[in-house]
Amino acid sequence: MEQYIIVGIIVVLCVLYILRKFVFKSKAARNSACGGCDRCSGKSGGCH
Q: Model pTM?
């Protein structure tokens, strides 16, 4: 029974991580300003 609970927690955390990644991507796409250096990588001069 403990195994199912642990696996369920891991699956939920993975889903939340993936959803959070997509939510931040869509917000960054809406704003024209660059949010961080990793998001700029080579686009129009980049941050560095």
A: 0.48
